[in-house]
User: What shape does this take?
Amino acid sequence: MNPGGATDTPRIAVVMPRGMSFGPGRASSIDLCAHDFIRHSRYRATTTVFADELAQPYEGLGVDLIPGRLARSHIMRLIWLRQRLSRARPALVVVHQHLPTAAWLARLLPGVPVLLHAHNFLKAKAGRSHRARLRQMQRFARLICVSDAVRETLARDYPEITATVTVHNGLDIGAWRPEPARENIVLLVGRAAPAKGVREAVSAMQGVLARHHDWRGLVILSERQAEQAFSAGIEALVAETPDRIALRWQRPFAEIKRANETAAIALVPSVWPEPYGRTALEAHAGGAALISSGTGGLREVSGEAACFLPKVDVPHLTSAIEALIRDAAARARLAAAGLERARQFDLATVSGRLDAVYDDVLAQRKA
Assistant: This one.
């Protein structure tokens, strides 16, 4: 564990899911969330992150890398974690997203409170699977949900689980630099998956940008290999209009941040219910006018600061993009409202809420 900090400050162990990349080069939204929370936490000096081995992890934090030969096996990874955590003797363990890892650690580390930080919906099961999942979740000292949408779905499917709390993801708003003069760019950032509305958005961009030659599209996608056929289809679609739309794969967060700080319009056209919607928050913080599907937790993020689509399809996206391109005043209103909305999710606020959850669990442990 991280040896720094005051000796009376409880030690926190944060366990990242397998397959994540806890570093600036290829960080997922979960990696970014965990990193940002720790950087702004009162427990930063006594927090250690346990993450899969990579060449360049985040600097300035306590990080213990799980050797690659072990990280590939769930069982070997758990054995390694148990040994490491047993020696480190943390006051509490926080596992991001992976329910089986959190449940096993709760069994393997008796007396140490384990918290699951859920970044996605915990899908309902049936029969024995439902009862097994319920038993797993009942082992947690707290179940932290990234949105009320996730928490309400959990309460509906597993009403027995009451030790839950919503802590929204956040951003260091002071680190964002929205450009007053915006570039004529329609920006789409997301994962290469049908559920993200990527194909519909690209098709709509092509039609609109054919009528507005002073505008361009920029598509930044991640997880190219996860759905190779879909990714290849998007590449082929973009290749039909290379002079209008640029496609970039797996870009560092700094580049994504800059794109949001300069683009005039951003799209988050998710078809599926988003558990939270960090991409929408990044668009707001960057000063882009946002067009959103509003599914799942997206409305929690945007409030009234986005143009919400009644349906995610090419006609509705075309209409919304066209309207904002033609109306600079509407873009400015949405951008200003988005910046104001983003301030509600500043890390100075949301990290304090997460620290308060830790405080409560630690106080109950002492009682």
Notes: The two ends are 25 Å apart (CA to CA). The first strand starts at residue 12 and ends at 15. The first helix runs from residue 29 to 39. The chain is about 45% helix and 20% strand.
